[in-house]
Amino acid sequence: MDSKVFIYFFTLICVVKIIYGEKRIGEDSYWDDLRVTFGNPKTDFQQLPRENFGKGSDFVKLMKDESCDSGKGMFQGYRYWANNDSAVILLFDKNGYIAGMQTAVPAESGWVPSDDIIGKYVLNDTTVDPMGVYTLTAYFVEPTTICSTGRNSSQFKMDGTGTDLYIQTGMDPKNNFTKIPEDQDDIKETLWGHGKCYYQMGQHYWYDIHKDMSCDHFVPYCLLYNRNKLNAFCFAIPHDLERSDRYEHPTLMQYENFFEPVPNCFYTDPSYHNSTTMHVYFTSDIADDKC
Fold first, then answer.
1. CA-closest candidate to residue 110, choices 247, 214, 242
2. What is the pLDDT of residues 9-42, one digit of tens each?
3. Is residue 213 pLDDT above 60, yes or no?
4. Sign of CA dihedral 33, 38, 41, 43
5. Residue 151: other Cβ atoms inside 10 A
6. Where residue 271 falls among pLDDT bands split at 50, 70, 90?
């Protein structure tokens, strides 16, 4: 190959990488991936589909789901799950690009959210199970755009998995949500409290955590920052759920690795002695998640 041609193609490849997939968290916080479940690098950190409504994967559309089509649902997006596993429900926008994620806990599991949490961070939904499920919802793009305009291919290539993290906080998905700060310096100005750093997770933040809090006020999410940027989060259910291999099961003795301080009620309330979490990662370089 002619040297000038080689230089041209090498330069072009570098430019494409910079724009479409090689931006790193210390620079533009590019979210180039979507994975769940902390654990064994060979079997966990499971990659999830982000395009074409999950076509080619095990994910299929939830039946009786009116979240986008009718405009009357409790959630934004087309909902897809794999193998009837409600631990991971993917939300796609009208054009088939990833827009968010849910985890849904069947009411029969025994977990009963407190009155302070139900109806806000946790919604009771009968779409997945006629007996009802407790659903937690996080969006990766502006919720009001998911069913109206969605993203196109250029925007997906530029944004990656999403632009921001939004946690749904009520029955109206177009209005009831909280946008999470991208920069760690900004989260310090909120009620999200500083937890602990853990390798391949990040710097944990928990909402309004303190030593003498009531467990009725525990918000079932954590935020994770690496290199001062948000690049992961977790669902955290104070109950031992065995339904899915996507879930993680920290024990009471392990809480001190993630919380600072560990609330006293975690020790006195039996529900917290064995809990269930699921870490959700937006970037592929998980080995570099050192806080």
1. 242
2. 334 334 334 443 443 434 446 899 999 999 998 8
3. yes
4. negative
5. 22
6. confident
CA angle 13-200-96, nearest 5°? 55
Whole-model pTM?
A: 0.89
Q: In terms of DSSP bridges, do strands 46-47 and 59-61 run parallel, antiparallel, or are they unpaired?
A: unpaired
Return all residues near 162 (Cβ < 8 A) that are at least 6 apart: 31, 98, 99, 100, 139, 140, 141, 282
Sheet holding 229-237, edge to edge: 46-47, 35-36, 276-281, 229-237, 221-226, 202-207, 192-198
C-alpha to C-alpha distance for 137 and 142, rounded to whole angstroms: 13
CB 288 within 8 A of CB 226: yes
Residues written for the chain: 291
All residues at 6 or more sequence positions from 226 whose CB lies less than 8 Å from its CB, including other chains: 25, 202, 203, 232, 288, 289, 290, 291
Query: How close are the terminal C-alpha atoms of the chain, in Å?
Result: 44
Give the pLDDT of residue 66: 67
* CA 59 – CA 205 distance, rounded (Å): 31
Q: Which residues pair with 91 in a beta bridge?
A: 79, 100
Q: CB of 34 within 8 A of CB of 48?
A: yes
The tokens of 99 are what? 């827009």
Mean local confidence (pLDDT), 261-287: 94
Supply 241's token pair: 């759920």
- For residue 70, what pLDDT band results from cuts at 50, 70 and 90? confident
The enclosing H or E element of 87 equals strand 85-92
